[in-house]
Amino acid sequence: KGAMDLVEAVVKHAHPPAIFDADALFAFAKRPELLDMIAENSILTPHPGEMARMVNSTIPGVETDRISTAREFAQATKTLLVLKGAGTIIGCPDGQIVVSPLSAPNLAAAGSGDILAGMGGALLAKGIPAMQSACIAVYWHGLAGQYLAENFPYRGNIATEIADVLPQVLKEELC
After folding, report:
1. Which CATH superfamily is domain 2-174 in?
2. In this structure, which of 118, 132, 140, 156 has its CB flanked by the most CB atoms within 10 Å?
């Protein structure tokens, strides 16, 4: 109940764009009317299980046609959606879809989505529009995952390792 109350307070009273993940998505699944109150340019970042709850489906149902699921949800709710997973999909309210060219199993780790949400939220806070914020965050997250997969191929990674390699990965990408 605490998370539900917090999400309701945020969507009712906070007007700058925000990024919603984890328990906030559970709140939207339980109370879909809260989606109507989200500030324009906000971003939702579900993994397939969270997406399945929000669309009253199953994980296989979501995974069968990830692109249509993302597009239809984004259009129906007028939100920007980042459907995490192999080939992360960004769905826009206007029906536009972007599929990340990067994929790394190392990103399937507890806390990995928190790193993604943190990057997206930081970009939103800098005034970068939601679509660009989502695309940049997903790309950077994917680069970090690929770096870790190449350098630590025989083990998974933890979220702090994803965050720790970001400065090096971005330096190599941008310089």
Report:
1. Ribokinase (3.40.1190.20)
2. 140
Separation in Å, CA 15 to CA 32, 41, 60, 89, 122: 18, 10, 35, 25, 16
The beta strand positions in the chain, using DSSP E, are 19-20, 43-44, 80-83, 89-91, 97-99
**Of the candidates 51, 48, 1, 40, which has an alpha carbon nearest to the alpha carbon of residue 18?**
40
Check: CB of residue 57 under 8 Å from CB of residue 68: no
Q: From residue 62, give the alpha-carbon distance in Å to each of 2, 48, 84, 118.
A: 28, 6, 11, 25
- Using CA atoms of 29, 35, 37, 38 in order, give the dihedral in degrees to the nearest 10: 110
pLDDT tens profile 88-144: 999 999 999 999 999 888 888 889 999 999 999 999 999 999 999 999 999 999 999
Residues 97 and 67 sit within 8 Å (Cβ to Cβ)? yes
- Beta strand 89-91 with 19-20 is unpaired
DSSP three-state, residue 155: coil
How would you list the strands of the sheet with 97-99, edge to edge?
19-20, 43-44, 80-83, 89-91, 97-99
Domain parsing of the chain, residue ranges: 2-174
- 113 sits in the region (left: phi over 0; alpha: psi -120 to 50; else beta) called alpha
